[in-house]
């Protein structure tokens, strides 16, 4: 991470304390109230929980600090993506999205098509050079999930903007510590804080961030009208998780960087992708636009049966979907219909000490 990220990480740890008065609790209270005392309508900071709640506002303030942009919280990453796309689209509008990105975002595209949105799917690697004529919103995911292809965000934004399209970047795999799409020209960031930001596999959460006040107002209004609001306890969990995000990320990225070259050298492993490897096709752009290479590694084993055997045998891999938790997790992505080989595994490196994790991975690979 760079100096600016370090400063944001330090500011985050002192963020709450700066607004405290004497005898206030140091820890964020969970204010779980659906409605607020309104004897009259003057000077009200809160009225009803669908419009605003202190606990999610506290987490929005943290996320705003990290993003350097106004932020609206949602009860999941998909709720955030949905709100951002609704704010940018409508019947007759055109959405371009990655054909190799998170499969539920593609399903959301198909859902939007039933409301009159025209959806164009383009592989991540072809997006920078795509024809944006007539496109209203471009949704990007870089590195793509699960293939880990990386595209040049700044170059894509320049071309998309010239054609009149806005760019929404799903920054879930990187977080604002490792990649800053808004600084690179994207109009909007969407993210699933369910992953590394909350970091403990115990909460779903998402956010939309943008420096365009009119867009953010539309997103906020969408949340109020659809009632897609996070709960106070979920916001509290994310608030707590965010305070250790940079520490966890440092460990996870560091370990991924140590283990990727060892995995690639193992005879059982094929076509490994990790943007931090100098030989990876994503490396050059990743090194330019990311301040860390992330904690996701993807690779193939011979076939589905071999991959399942490895995942079941390795005592340091929790077999589950999702990524970014304290523990290493992994799964075969074909089971979700991703366009990958049967033996393709997405591994999310956790916070285990690197050598202990490597011993377990190596033992199970050797046993294949
Ligand atoms: C890249 C990406 N975006 C969005 C989401 C959706 O997040 P959530 O599960 O919190 O709705 C996911 C979930 O896996 C994801 O991987």
Explain how this protein is built.
By secondary structure, the protein is an alpha/beta fold. The chain folds into two domains: 3-243, 3-Layer(aba) Sandwich (Aspartate Aminotransferase, domain 2); 245-366, Alpha-Beta Complex (Aspartate Aminotransferase, domain 1). Helices cover 40% and strands 15% of the residues. The chain has 13 helices and twelve strands. It has helices spanning 3-18, 54-67, 77-88, 103-113, 124-127, 153-162, 175-178, 213-226, 232-243, 245-265, 283-289, 304-313, 354-366, and strands spanning 70-74, 94-98, 118-122, 137-141, 166-170, 188-192, 206-210, 270-273, 296-300, 318-319, 329-332, 344-348. The strands form two sheets. The protein has a seven-stranded mixed beta sheet with strand order 1-7-6-5-4-2-3, with helices on both faces. Strands 8-9-12-11-10 form a five-stranded mixed beta sheet, with helices on one face. α4 links the parallel β2 (94-98) and β3. α2 packs parallel to α9 (232-243). The two termini are 36 Å apart. The mean pLDDT is 97. Bound molecules: pyridoxal-5'-phosphate. Pyridoxal-5'-phosphate (PLP) binds next to α3. The site of pyridoxal-5'-phosphate has 14 residues, from α3.
